[in-house]
Predict the structure.
Amino acid sequence: MIEIAGLKKSFFGTPVLQGVDLAVADSERLVIIGGSGCGKSVLLRHIAGLLKPDTGSLRIDGRDLVPLPERDLNPIRQGIGVLFQGSALFDSLDVFHNVAFSLLEHRTASPKEIRERVAQVLDVVGMTGQEGKKPAELSGGMRKRIGLARAIISRPRIMLYDEPTTGLDPQMADSINRLILKMSDSFHVTSIVVTHDMTSAYMVGERIAMLHRGKILVSGAPREIQESSDPIVRNFIRGVSEERDGGDGGEGAKKTL
Ligand SMILES: Nc1ncnc2c1ncn2[C@@H]1O[C@H](COP(=O)(O)OP(=O)(O)OP(=O)(O)O)[C@@H](O)[C@H]1O
Ligand SMILES: [Mg+2]
């Protein structure tokens, strides 16, 4: 369903993506791991149609997004839900207006239908009746849930999650992981999850791919990644599981007491 080939992107002469090749099957759950700053969010933004690569192709259902003009990208973007790193809610808007944002913007639904759909997605994420709250009144985990409700309200076929569990306590992280699984099982969405959190990676990933030096270094079933003999993969996995924020690949992670 999603086929990425030879994707390259530089910012001000600094290469970030250096030839990414990656295919994601219909309704698959793929996890992307990799050190801080290696380009995971940049890759997700390309898949969401929010960034254009310098070269390469990015096909969704066989159609290459790269040459498409802005107006042709908009309908494609609507089929892709994104839970952004940090949730990216509008602080001045209440939960209702945050969640309903895309429906209000596109004016495709009646006010009654919008109210019903907001209530529905809030129910899915376990936030029933919270329409009137402002983001500042919510915990980090609740904000993620609202971000998720906002992403799923347009009934996307593809969901992109950027660090969905980072900064959450283990229980809250667990409930977000369950929501990712629920989205996948109940609505058959194709899921791409970027994370540093290996517990989450093993829980939600049917396949795990590691981005390293601008390319996909390995991709395989969670067990294959866990048992990989590649020193870069081994160091990364050990680094993050012993020290949660050691996202630089493990070698530079120091234990602090
Ligand atoms: N719009 C932009 N303009 C210039 N440089 C950018 C832009 N977006 C990202 N970068 C650079 O690209 C590199 C990769 O960034 P990216 O956010 O994708 O990393 P990441 O793997 O998601 O890291 P983290 O795990 O910390 O979220 C970084 O060096 C970043 O500074
Ligand atoms: Mg990122």
Q: What stands out?
A: Residues 11, 16, 34, 36-42, 85, 247 surround adenosine-5'-triphosphate (ligand 1) (CB under 6 Å). The first helix runs from residue 40 to 47. Strands lie at 2-11, 14-24, 29-33, 55-60, 63-64, 80-83, 158-162, 190-194, 207-212, 215-220.
